[in-house]
């Protein structure tokens, strides 16, 4: 074993795919790239999301208490990175990056049609937002595009490189304790 820099452990624990987060505030839609998120609870489904005051979406999320987490496939990788490299303060990212917004069912933030999945969320706890930029979101409605099922998603390695979902192994028969969460 070799020692690893503790300030880079996030590269080892990256929890899930890079996602896009949409908000709608004062008549303006925005989309941002987010890599730091995690499932917090199964029922109701709670998601921890790191969105800081440096992000244009931070104010919208704090004020409206709503967003959509859209899960892009790797086919959108370059757009996802480019979205993260500019600010919604100065850029209409939907127009600039050719994304199609679609009305959500439970929140004002839009869905992104080009993404595999869209999860409508409401903020249920923002007590850690000021200290850690951590919002706890409840998933209130979710959508998937069956045509994109099985397409790889991208996972940030913390240094500008990404890994893509790979081979799937099925160990459902061994998941005795968690059977209620299987299909």
Task: Describe what you observe in this structure.
31% of the residues are buried. The chain has a seven-stranded antiparallel beta sheet with strand order 2-1-5-8-9-4-3. Strands 6-7 form a two-stranded antiparallel ribbon. Strands 10-11 form a two-stranded antiparallel ribbon. The longest helix is centred in the N-terminal third of the chain and has 9 residues, at 56-64. It contains five helices and eleven strands; from the N terminus they run H-E-E-E-E-H-E-H-H-E-E-E-H-E-E-E. It has a single domain, classed as Electron Transport, Fmn-binding Protein, Chain A (Pnp Oxidase, Chain A). By secondary structure, the chain is of the alpha+beta class.
What's this entry about, in short?
The protein is of the alpha+beta class. It has helices spanning 10-13, 56-64, 77-84, 93-96, 129-132, and strands spanning 19-25, 28-34, 37-41, 46-50, 66-71, 101-102, 111-112, 117-125, 134-144, 154-156, 162-164.
Number of helices: 5
What's the CATH topology name? Answer: Pnp Oxidase, Chain A
How do the helices and strands follow one another from N- to C-terminus? HEEEEHEHHEEEHEEE
The value of Rg in angstroms is: 17 Å
Whole-number total of structural domains:
1
Instruction: Tell me roughly what share of residues is in helical segments.
Output: 10-25%
User: Which class do the helix and strand fractions yield?
Assistant: alpha+beta
Number of strands: 11
> Biggest sheet, strands in spatial order?
2-1-5-8-9-4-3
- Give the overall shape, derived from the CA principal axes: globular
The major pleated sheet works out as: 7 strands, antiparallel
The low-confidence runs, each spanning 5 or more residues with pLDDT under 50, are none
Span between termini = 39 Å
């Amino acid at each position: 074993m070799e020692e690893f820099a503790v300030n880079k452990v996030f590269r080892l624990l990256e929890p899930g795919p890079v996602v896009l987060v949409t908000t709608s505030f004062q008549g303006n839609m925005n989309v941002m790239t987010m890599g730091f998120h995690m499932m917090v609870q199964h029922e109701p489904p709670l998601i921890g999301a790191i969105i800081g005051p440096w992000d244009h979406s931070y104010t919208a999320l704090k004020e409206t208490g709503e967003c959509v987490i859209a899960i892009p496939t790797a086919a959108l990788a370059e757009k996802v990175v480019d979205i993260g490299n500019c600010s919604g303060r100065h850029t209409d990212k939907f127009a600039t990056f050719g994304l199609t917004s679609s009305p959500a069912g439970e929140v004002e933030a839009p869905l992104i049609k080009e993404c595999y999945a869209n999860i409508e969320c409401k903020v249920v706890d923002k007590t850690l937002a000021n200290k850690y930029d951590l919002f706890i979101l409840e998933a209130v409605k979710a959508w998937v595009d069956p045509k994109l099922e099985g397409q790889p998603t991208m996972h940030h390695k913390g240094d500008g490189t990404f890994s893509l979902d790979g081979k799937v192994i099925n160990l459902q028969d061994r998941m005795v304790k968690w059977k209620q969460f299987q299909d």
